[in-house]
Amino acid sequence: MTALNRVPSLMARAGTASALTLAAVGGSIVAPGLAPEAEAATMGARALKVAASKKGSPYKWGATGPRRFDCSGLTLYSFKKAGKALPRTAAQQYNKTRHISVKSRKAGDLVFFHVGSSVYHVGIYAGKGKIWHAPKTGDVVRLEKIWTRRVWYGRVN
Predict the structure, then answer these.
(1) Which residue in the list 54, 68, 84, 121 is annotated as catalytic?
(2) Annotated catalytic residue 86
(3) Using a CB cutoff of 8 Å and minimum separation of 24, what contacts does 135-141 make?
(4) What predicted TM-score, i.e. pTM, was given to this entire model?
(5) How much of the chain exceeds pLDDT 70, in percent?
(6) Whether residue 99 lies in the annotated active site
(7) 16: burial class by Cβ within 10 Å (0-12, 13-18, 19+)?
């Protein structure tokens, strides 16, 4: 019997199970109102790992991986591997995310660079003011400090 199969029997014997008990046997907790946020955070963390694993991959306009990427191609690929489909372009991706404040940003959120109301670039927030992104022709996927305040943040749900 696997640990996951034991969870229902453990809960039946104990009546309820603590979060630590569930974690010890490989279970999970669903808290009303918190699950979508926790799921988004987990998905973002997985996408961030995928993007980081592509370090050094060459930039190619219009490329969506797995060996070459443009900016939105990297985010599309990373979230697809994490289990969520995104549209193709940075602007379309911005329109499909839940917009959040700079104070609410978390690792795994998308960072959209804009001029006025036009989004021109996207990366995945890595924490500490840095993003993983595919910068431009002649460059490679890399971790870089956010260089402007003209950014918006979006969370993939």
Answers:
(1) 121
(2) no
(3) 135/59, 135/71, 136/59, 137/59, 137/60, 137/61, 138/59, 139/58, 139/59, 140/55, 140/56, 140/57, 140/58, 140/59, 141/51, 141/54, 141/55, 141/56, 141/57, 141/59, 141/69, 141/74
(4) 0.76
(5) 74
(6) no
(7) exposed
